[in-house]
Amino acid sequence: MFRFIFEREVLNQIRLHKFLVSTTVTLALTLLCLGVSSERYLYKTKEYTSAIQHQRDILTRTKSMTEASLGNGVFETVDHAVFRKPNPLFVLCNGKDDSLGDIARLSSRSMPLYLESYSSLNQVSNFDLGNTLSDMVNSLDFRNIVKFLFSLIAVFIGFDIVSSEREQGTLKLIMANSVARQTFVFAKWSAGLAVMAAALIFALIFALLYLYTFLHIGLDAEHGARIMALFGFSLLYMLIFYQLAFLASSIAKSSNMAMVALVIFWVMTTFILPNSVTMLGKYFTPTPPIDYIRMEEDAISKKYSAAMTNSREDNTKILEVRENIQRDIGRAQQHYINSLRKQYSAAVAWSLLSPASIFDNAAEIVSGTSISDYDQFMERVRVTNESYASLIKNWKFENRLFEYRKQFNITVNELITDASLDNNRLGLGKSIEKASSYIILLIIINVLLFCTILTLDIRVHLT
Amino acid sequence: MKNLIVKEILVLQKNVFMYVLTAMIMILFVVNGAYYSAKYSEFLSYNGRALSRHGTTAIYKNYYLPANPVIFCCDSNEKQMSTLCNVSPAKLNLSPNRDQRGNIFLESIHSMDWTRIVQIIFSLLMIVLGYSGISDENEKKTLNLVCSYSISRWKLFLGKFAGILLFTAVILLLALTIGLITILLAGKIPVDGKLLSKSILFYGVSLIYCSFFIFVSLGVSAKTRNSTMSLSVSVLIWVGIVLILPKTSVIAASHLQPARSEYENAKQFDRWEKPFEDEVTALLLKAQENKNLSADTKEQIIRNLEMNITQIENRRAEAEYRLNNFILLSEMTKYQEEQKWLKLSPAMLYRDTIETVVQGGNAYFLDFLKQMQFFEARFREDMFNRYNTYIARPRGAVVRLDGEDITIFPDWPHIESNHMEFKFKPRSFRESLVASALQISILVLLTMITAIWGFIGFVRQEITS
Question: In angstroms, rounded to a whole number, what is the distance separating the alpha carbons of residues B454 and A42?
């Protein structure tokens, strides 16, 4: 009996126009957005490769340099910057890669506060009028397609799954056939799930084929595992909407009631909550004004101006004062960044009210484009910057020996090239570990919904 | 007719979901008022500090985009907050200062302004109220009864529309009042006559937008067999209009009307100075070939070099100016191209209209930019008239003549501080109305076409008995 109901439901779903139309539109959109995302990824990769190649060339030239060949020229040095390797999964989930930047300019004085984007390498103006065209979806990638459209497909599959049988009067007939209620519910549930999973798998296969054949984006085994995890999250996320739809369809008087309630819920979770809770987060966890660092710098220079004028004659004293100023500015910067992070955490905590944000965070982490990956990179930058600063500090200006200068240049170049060549993102295990709380949250919601479905009496409103 | 409207309102007020959505809208308007009041005062204090910090030099002037009081109505992006416009005769440099652009960790999330609330939730409310308007009555056979009263169909259709519109008008009015009261209580944004008249305009344009969606839902309802089908189709249309079209039309614009990409700009920018550097190097090398020079010829060579380098420097400045303008222009054309395509989606057409009508968001920003460009052109002209050059000071060069290093540094006029000042004039109420007349008429036209489409569907519908 299970098999019979299951097969009938699957066939029913596939035959419906709304399913076909929505799936086709979603597939087309998936391919479109992959094209756009990959364009950006390929641009970043090109810039990254050429920057690294430049660094390597200079390193080789410096290594083979002899005192005679140097002439009256000077040693070349690479850009004193660490580059972040672009992540191929950026195409599927843009995450925070673009907004946080990819290039850290090293400084012997303080840790870089912000990263620059690849376009800054060519001095292209950062200003982009197009981006200020604000609408709700800022980047179209696979994650957003799942978040907005696949959840809607799940709603479309589920909203009349039980109520249509009730409205057509077939539910009475089935119930008369001495089918256990659980069998009926479970068969229906699995049929809907199978259709939903099939739509997602189709989209994913198409996406991967498109990436592989047309865009030539190479993915390795780890990426494969990450994509599988992304697929799992997407399914869990869609399952929430599907099970809710199932519930609504069983409880509501009519399919229409169920549908309206679900669409309102969908709008709430995907649009309204994630955006308005950010407003709440910003409102309740305010940060210092955006020019805080500038203000602090002014205050600090005012504070040390007397000490600076007093120690004008003494070189060691002036160095000491400068160090103090640097230390204070560093503290102010750290304070500012910490408060930004605090606001971000508050916004994330608020956004956990919406399953869409939970999915968002999980997808970002598992694709390696999240804030944790940014932190990982910043940690590498910090270590590199420290060694770089100590190298510069210990550089003896008096020592003009060729070998000394050559060795110094090689060390700096190697340091920066090594840091740029590193993967600088969280490993798969770490990513899964980071995302685990979100996964558990998604699973708990689903299990709760499933238990409610199983205990449900579908015969309400039957008479 | 009156009876029909009353009946429609009586039916609507039983809709539970209407209450849910209305409650949601009210909450959002309160949150919006509180949030934007805080943000506006932050803008104001920031702009004040920034202006006092960035003075003007002889050749550079800095301006910030002034804070806009209608920010709660259409907020474009936080980026605009820190838009520093650096004007010099050589170039108009427009850059959001990366160090001062708010919380970078939260950058990608947009906040809910009035336009967006109407754009998304009100349109959905229209679908929820209108989807069952005709098909439901047809299913319940009440349509047959109503028609037996010899009421013409257009009256029936209009009655349904008017009922829903009246309902919406009341909800929207309530929401706007609540929003304005919150803003008034927060006391940061000055609520004056100008702001109130802008709110009234917002109200009017929003009602046109809502009418469009009412006609869509009624039309779909008339064309489909049952209300479930009608609902599914209406929701799909809503998703397409609000969610998919705005995004895909931007992509379509960038592919069908390819504006210059970031990468192309990069290629253009990359090493643009090289030809000028090469030219100077060639000059110097040629000069260095002369040997055993007398003092007079040496002097003559140096004079020639100075003159040539001055010319090259001026040409370099000209090239830089052109390049900068070109990139700015290409960004603007790209934006306008996207705007054109965005009008395909009524949701974005609505947003665009509101921005022009109330002078907020991108319209405000573009106005600032255009006036800045105009000012920059005057500044440049003035500089050239007075000093016959665009640059404050050319770069020097070193030439080795007969084993002696000589620094070539052309005589340059002393550039005095320019007292030309720029004052941003926001458009007046009438000007923005005139500017948005076309957009409003397109919106009305679109609504009328939808109405006719819906009505024809209703006329051709078979009423089951």
Answer: 46
